[in-house]
User: Fold this.
Amino acid sequence: MGRRLAHLVAKDTRVSVRNHFFTVALILALLITLVNTFLVPEDISLERRTFILDTTPEQRLQAEFLAGAREWAVIPAASREELETGMLDYRHSVGVIVAPGSTIPEVSLVFQRDENAQVRNLVAADVEAQVRRAYGPAEPEAVVGQVVLRGETAPEKPPFNKLLLPFWLYTLVILGMIGFGAALVFREKEDGTLRAYQVTPGRIWEYLLGKAVSLSLLGVFFAFLLALLNLGLGVNYLHLALITVLGSVFVGLLAITVANFFEDLTQFIYAGLVLEAFLFIPVFTYFFPSFAPAVSQWLPTYHALFAFREIVFPTEGARLIREAVWVLAIANIILLFLGSLAFRKQLERA
Assistant:
């Protein structure tokens, strides 16, 4: 069994090389690196929302915020919980909490975890100026405290162009297996290899797994190129390979199983687009965390995307990566079983 599987993997890898799949991966990796380096800006933050909770009777500071010509939206909050909930929905936001004091109110600023000290000091100075305008220069100078919403430390915020790398790894490497997997199936249908395999002792699951593993080798090659060209050696390549293999196997198995129901690539293209659109849903959650429908989080590839982010920008240790490994491994076993049944039934009808 092991020898047959190794033979299938080697055969499909040779087919991938002859069809220039690895060349395509190399060209795409170079293009993405050029786009990330020269076209995508490091920062796209154009506006910042300010959530304010003013519990003083006159609410003079809140009125000053609302009346001022601000570059960002000012949103009054009715409670501390409402303020923090609003901030969690908008990554580029700050909170201002105003409480009654002896002569002037006590002001606390609530920050996200990503701002550096310079940004926080500028915001604090701006709020102090707003207090002086609201309560008059004769009043004592305001003391502005600071609170961090998402943790006590403020790690350096990654540039936006580097933040796109997990997105590229997911959309081009993982979702790219839809096209590569379908191409393998239709090439063998044209050559009659699939019918010839039916009369060999080989099992269907070996056939499917052999193709999926060969696709995962292509995926690892592609992922390593992207990571090396964009981040150098500062990445855990073992974790990157593990998530890439499991994610590529899942999408590859899915694409191969679905492609077998069609005669050629022209018939498959619409089903492939629907499949890719469905698996693209987690990307919206990646860029807009407040958009997290259940269907997105139930997709095994959702865990692959956020595992890529954890690999590129570590924040929570290996928890997300371990979770992704378990989810993808279980999903692959189930999909291999279901795919083998569907593949066998489709071959019997042909």
Notes: The mean pLDDT is 80. The two ends are 26 Å apart (CA to CA). The chain has two domains: 2-40+159-349, 49-148.
